[in-house]
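Quiz preparation item.
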């Protein structure tokens, strides 16, 4: 499998390759190979004119480690006490599995992407879930990042990921710079 998003530039903001290859989750797993491939090929930017996939970028505000902590902090109360649950989990997630999710991307319209770091799919991949924390619950939408992007750009499959979308997303990637303003 591979990625076939059309880049708007040959510039790539890759982030920290050392961390990309060495990071381990709390259960000892490493980043999925499809994610590593994505970061190496595209880096930091806007995919399909909608999704930002966070990558390791040190202390840059959109670094995967900074953004994942920020996203988790919005529902930490729920992780601590189930009775604090303020969003739908279903149809594809149970409360006990919420602690196994790791946020790694977001759409510009408020959909969040998560890996289930305990999923038992392909050997070094992790199931991908999407939610908006408002009404769609958590939907398992892909087995890996290749599958995710294949679906969102497909006229036949895009609703598996974005059930309320009117059209498939464009097959594009626009590179962002990670240079902070002075």
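Solution:
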């Amino acid at each position: 499998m591979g990625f076939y998003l059309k880049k708007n530039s040959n510039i790539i903001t890759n982030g920290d390759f050392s961390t990309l290859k060495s990071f381990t989750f709390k259960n000892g797993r490493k980043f999925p190979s499809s994610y590593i491939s994505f970061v190496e090929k595209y880096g930091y930017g806007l995919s399909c004119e909608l999704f930002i996939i966070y990558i390791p970028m040190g202390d840059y505000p959109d670094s995967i480690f900074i953004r994942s902590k920020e996203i988790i902090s919005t529902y930490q109360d729920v992780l601590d006490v189930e009775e604090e649950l303020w969003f739908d989990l279903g149809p594809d997630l149970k409360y006990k599995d919420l602690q196994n999710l790791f946020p790694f991307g977001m759409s510009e319209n408020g959909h969040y992407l998560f890996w289930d770091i305990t999923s038992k799919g392909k050997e070094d991949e992790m199931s991908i879930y999407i939610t908006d924390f408002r009404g769609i619950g958590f939907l398992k939408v892909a087995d890996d990042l290749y599958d995710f992007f294949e679906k969102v750009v497909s006229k036949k499959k895009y609703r598996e990921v974005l059930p309320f979308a009117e059209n498939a997303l464009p097959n594009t990637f626009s590179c962002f710079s990670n240079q902070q303003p002075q």
